[in-house]
Amino acid sequence: MTDTRPTPDAPVRPAEPTAVPVPRPHRAAHPEPRDAFRLPLLSFVLAGCAVAVVLGVYAAEHEPAGYSLDVPGFSSPLYVKTWLTTAAAVLGVVQLLTAARMHDAGARPWTRTLHRWSGRVSVLLTVPVVVHCVYALGFQSGSTRALVHSALGCFFYGVFVTKMLALTRPGLPRWAVPVSGGLLFTTLIALWFSSSLWVFTSSGFRF
Amino acid sequence: MSARRRRTTGPLATLAAVVLFTVVLFAANSRVDEQAGAAPSYPDGSSGSATATPSAEPSAEPTAEPSPTPSPEAPPAQQAVFAGLTSGGEATLAMAVNDGAAAAYLCDGSEIEAWLQGTVDGETMTLTGRNGAGLTGTVTDSAVLGTVTTSTGLTLPFSAALSTPPAGVYESRTTIDGLATRIGWAVLPDGTQVGVATIGGEKQPAPPFDPASGSFELDGTTGTAEPVDGSDTVVGG
């Protein structure tokens, strides 16, 4: 059948029953001036920078112990880290998929819970990995991969701290949380590429 | 209101959980590190936590070795390398002195291994390592004589003569198959290399390195042995 435009005098198809959302008030509704957010945001970013720098300096200065606590069930500590990172990266993808729903009023409530808890579990999974990296290996610059991985690892926790602090302030610019979240996701995936994928391709895909 | 409260406390709780978990893991690692002295599997110098504790041991034990040619006020060599053996030939010892700082490596090529760090004050050398390892010695113009204690409690008298390259302490840190690897060599004046490679906590004899370039190969990975200076950090950090 052919699709014809309704003639002007044809009855206009009734609009979807009151699905028109009331446009939510924009930022202009806030009486605070823009600059009110600058100082908190700057301090959060600086806190993140401090965490990244402290982590990097400690990793570089601490004499690598060469080993760390082991987790049973894997063939070596290397694979424990590899799989923890892989799990964290998968949860990172969940983060990416659910992130847009965080500010969608129509989203189902569980997507927000999923976003929050996948993020928490993801970052907690990375903690044993980073402790092993920092404690047993240290900041390494022997190869490009190690240098990039070391630097990104420090950066990751800096961004994480910045984002967690930024979330505590509801009034920050709209881009603050998506940008920090995007950086976190990108860094996490880059960390996975520079570690787990490297292990899987160089040492074999196994547990 | 409660939603807003949750919004501000949730991320902070996450942050706190991550920090707490990190601290707990670090503390657990440090504890394991201190106890590792009981097992001879990893007796070399590694973590900062142990550096303070063993200092009492060398001071409690007076320098038993006679100090020949006690030239008082003999300033220790500005920068020098000493190399020698323990009196029973159990292990090779090399040490590097730089002004008042000294670093030493004791090794038998398989089991005994100790990284030591400390100072030279006048003619007294006092070095400490991890898990109770230590060294006390008397520095003369031509030699260091004293006693070295391993982390397993072995106390060995030694003499190390002033030496020239290739003698010295050499070290390499690298990553082999993702495992942190530290290799130490004590090199005698005749070029004999005695070393241990610790790969992810497992010890094996160190590969020989080329005295000219320092390059070596281990498990298909190439690396470079770096000469250790007396002021380099080999213990703790």
UniProtKB/TrEMBL annotation, chain A:
It holds the Pfam family DUF6529. Residues 1-29 are annotated as: Disordered. InterPro entries: DUF6529. It comes from the Bacteria. The chain crosses the membrane at residues 39-60, 80-100, 121-140, 146-167, 179-200. Keywords: Membrane, Transmembrane, Transmembrane helix. This is Uncharacterized protein. The lineage of its organism: Bacteria, Bacillati, Actinomycetota, Actinomycetes, Geodermatophilales.
TrEMBL record, chain B:
Residues 65-75 have a biased composition (Pro residues). It comes from the Bacteria. Residues 45-64 have a biased composition (Low complexity). Residues 34-77, 200-237 are annotated as: Disordered. This is Uncharacterized protein.
